[in-house]
Amino acid sequence: MTAALPPHSPADDAGNDAAGPAFSPLYQQIKTLIMRSLQEGEWKPGEVIPSEIELAARYRVSQGTVRKAIDELATENLVVRRQGKGTFVATHTEAQVKYRFLRLVPDGDAPPGPMERRYIDCRRLRAPAEVLRALDLRAGDPVLQVRRLLSFQGKPVVLDLIWLPAALFKGLTAERLSEYRGPLYALFEAEFGVRMIRAEEKVRAVAAPPADATLLDVAPGTPVLSVERRTLTYGDRPVELRQGLYNTASHYYRNELS
Amino acid sequence: MTAALPPHSPADDAGNDAAGPAFSPLYQQIKTLIMRSLQEGEWKPGEVIPSEIELAARYRVSQGTVRKAIDELATENLVVRRQGKGTFVATHTEAQVKYRFLRLVPDGDAPPGPMERRYIDCRRLRAPAEVLRALDLRAGDPVLQVRRLLSFQGKPVVLDLIWLPAALFKGLTAERLSEYRGPLYALFEAEFGVRMIRAEEKVRAVAAPPADATLLDVAPGTPVLSVERRTLTYGDRPVELRQGLYNTASHYYRNELS
DNA sequence: GAGTGGTCTAGACCACACT
DNA sequence: GTGTGGTCTAGACCACTCC
What we know:
Two copies of one chain form a homodimer.
Chain A: H1 26-39, E1 48-49, H2 52-59, H3 63-75, E2 79-82, E3 86-89, E4 104-106, E5 115-126, H4 129-134, E6 142-152, E7 155-165, H5 174-179, H6 184-191, E8 198-207, H7 210-216, E9 223-233, E10 237-246, E11 251-257
Antiparallel strand pairs in A: 1-3, 2-3, 4-11, 5-6, 6-7, 7-10, 8-9, 9-10
Helix pairs in contact in A: 1-3, 2-3
Chain A binds a DNA duplex through residues 8, 10, 23, 25-27, 51-53, 61-65, 67-68, 70, 81-87.
């Protein structure tokens, strides 16, 4: 139950061992251990994790050290602190962060408002080479291809082409997608145990191809944003590749620099 | 020299005063004081600030409290910590963060390489209403309008239209811009004492207008990224508005989500 | 009141840079 | 060696939440 720490337990280490190039502070090791428990599902999304005092006892370190570990997990959005209540495993379901990864904002800066999702299809097929590469898969590994359309106030705004490793999403069908109300990533974490942690996006301006233009209800050739997203789970393992086309006629892609 | 702290000095506050809604922890107050010194130029960009121990003595708090204040300043990129050397006021000159605000990356993920800046013109004129609003200026306040072209390997990639409050940039001319080698924001902080801290960007896909297309060396109507940036200095005061057109044929706008 | 996270302190020791 | 930031500890008290 109480995993002992290899290096840097409170009262060992006298002089660094020979050939020890990989030094890491205690709180980093604790962070890694907590992260492992998160990954293994010891605490599920939305649940509380043990209190700082309990974790300090479990790992045999001071509360301050656990605190620093949890601080980092909180700034990485893996965990949410709530004073007086505890620390909770982050979720894509909560209202505050429901659209954490969607940077599209309506022009007037009004809150996004309700969004309709229409799933066009969900097919199992052989992945193009570039998809294989982006998802770290091997030739022959099956993938799921999902297409969907997001609309705001009845107007289509985002057309997504999504690629998923089939091995991780067994039983995902167009029906199942259509039945589900709520963010895709909430479904993924609840039904398939796949948690989306962070993502990288490559944004370009392109001319809308005729077929896509029809779905987006714009003229073929209209400039639209192409947003290529690679989504990663624990340990930076890629688990989704998605190409989105955004109609930016009355919305924009918002970004903060610092 | 040693400014005394109004509330929450180490040994006062017994029971919250009546009508005291604006509680803020000590380290936040320290952070504010340090930020004020930065803003007032007590320590200039690139210089060391006093050590944690000195600051702790100056503000009459513990080193740990100063540390927490500086930690936040460091994560906001106002300050850079260097172990064994000290804490330094952040700069737009350092190589590591020279292109902190430029998210454009060449397709092959190769490092950006050298960049040529060509300043087209720098004019003083009356600002359009939307520029006034974005910069929090009053009708009649003069502004500078700068146009410039960024090229990579001889190919034009970014066309910027920049608006600046003339009051803050007295004496800025096209010649002065052209003579300067290095990032624009480095010039601003060195010559005009205006430090760019953070920015908000609105990204859209648009058809390149004919005149701009010529400068960017693309066909008129080509889809290009429109990047509208509002840049802020201390206290979130807006000091720049810029509209960039990015040719994303062989570059992309990179973003990280978390 | 009991339990949780949040703040603040004081002191010890480590890793790093300059001299 | 001296001074800097970085880690770790132990203990006190505060603010918030729920019973």
